[in-house]
Amino acid sequence: MQRFISKRLPLLLVMMLAVFTLQDCSVNPVTGKKQLAFMSEEKEIALGQSYDPQVIAEMGEYQNPAMAQFLTEKGLAMARTSHRPNLPWKFTLVDSPVVNAFAVPGGFVYFTRGIMAHFNNEAQFAGVLGHEIGHVTARHTVAQQAKQTLGQVGLIGGMILSPELASQGESLMQGMQLLFLKFGRDAESQSDQLGVEYSTGIGYDAKEMAGFFGTLSRLSGGAENRVPEFMSTHPDPDNRFVRVQQLAQQYQEVDTKNTNYTVGRDSYLRMIDGMIYGEDPAQGFVEAGSFYHPGLKFQFKIPGQWTLINAPTQVQMVSPDQKSIMQMKLAQGSDQNAAAQSFVQEAGVNVVNSSQQPINGLPATTILGTVTQEAQQQGQQGQTISVLASFISYGGNTYMMLGMALQADFNRYQRDIEYSIGTFAQLTDQSKLNRQPEKIKIVSNSRSQTLQQALQADRIPTDRHEELAILNGMELSQTLPAGTLFKSLSGGDIK
């Protein structure tokens, strides 16, 4: 039977059968109902503990002690009132401009500085915090992990070539998951409800959480530019706005502990004053189709339509169809030849061609070759991956720029890979080297005026007024009474 299954059934189905034979039933901590358990709580915690350092390595921590303390204090207070108070909860502020918050199994919750910049009071933050805690307490993160494991079989099949290349592929997948992790609509709706429940439980006005969905709606282009809700994995932000308002009203009506709910607008705005907004140029930035890194003083061009993911330890680029990957990171040592030889040996590369031709005057060793992955199970066929990698010595470091795809597909991407590698060069443009980050600047409105008038008075360029209106959770025509705090920007190109 085992031989028949492995020959006749698709690999994904075989793996699904294997997974479901290992499941058992457990009680969901939130619903109290039995559900299929993909893993024990001990394994869930261990999984989260293994992910946590990887998340921080991929995204980096944002160094702001006051904000980090605020996140941890509120997170722990809320976790204590949740359905799973005994998890080893950990709350981390990560250094990403993406507007996102996410959780991994076991009680590990992450907020980007990008989402922190878009909250306009403590209550909005608390609602989203409760939402992310809800994903963990309802075990959505566990179910999602299992789905991702199954859904990635095809990609993993093309990635697990050797310890060296496997680590690169896993890193890419983790980065993509963390930035774009999506739960189903039912899970999102349940977490919205838990966000209202948990934030109300520690005294915040959960109606403000609904206001943040207005911000999300505008960030996603408004209702006219979004796909219909039935085609999306997330509920429509406008529908969530209405539902969360209703839920907040219901919870507040039955809450006997609190009568005066906290919003905390001014306190929150003062806390984020001076926070970096958008890309931090010191860590590298994209402009006009090129990637620049002022700290390490290098640059290279990005192939057209490829997606770039910048992390503290590496830069990754993915082709539009996600069938080819490029990666740039530091290699070991300062000798490009030794680094190339080490890579060939560790990755098991069958070298087809090699070159010592410099790249823009920099010493380089470039190899073209293949790596063959042996079949993992009886009935499977091994896969051959084509790899093009250059090892470039510059500034006392050796940089590896690598592109790979299945051998059958590689010709479609080789020109893009060669183009990007061939543009690696020293960065000498002082306008790029001296680029400063933009920062949130909290301003007290001196007189009664509209938000647009206030932004004009603070010399914010007109073409960025709508962006700042979204950042403030307001309309440009909204009147600000004298003394009202609002978000503006400083640094960067803002004069």
Automatic annotation (TrEMBL):
Cofactor(s) this protein requires: Zn(2+)
Protein name: Putative Zn-dependent protease
Keywords: Hydrolase, Metal-binding, Metalloprotease, Protease, Signal, Zinc
UniProt keyword Kinase present: no
Residues making up the signal peptide according to the UniProt record: 1-26
Pfam families, sorted: Peptidase_M48
GO cellular component term of the entry, any: membrane
Domain (Peptidase M48) ranges: 70-246
GO MF term set: metal ion binding; metalloendopeptidase activity
InterPro entries: Mito/Outer_Membr_Metalloprot, Peptidase_M48
Highest taxon of the lineage: Bacteria
The keyword Ligase belongs to this UniProt entry's keyword annotation: no
Gene Ontology biological process terms, A to Z: proteolysis involved in protein catabolic process
Chain ranges passing through the membrane: none
Organism: Neolewinella agarilytica
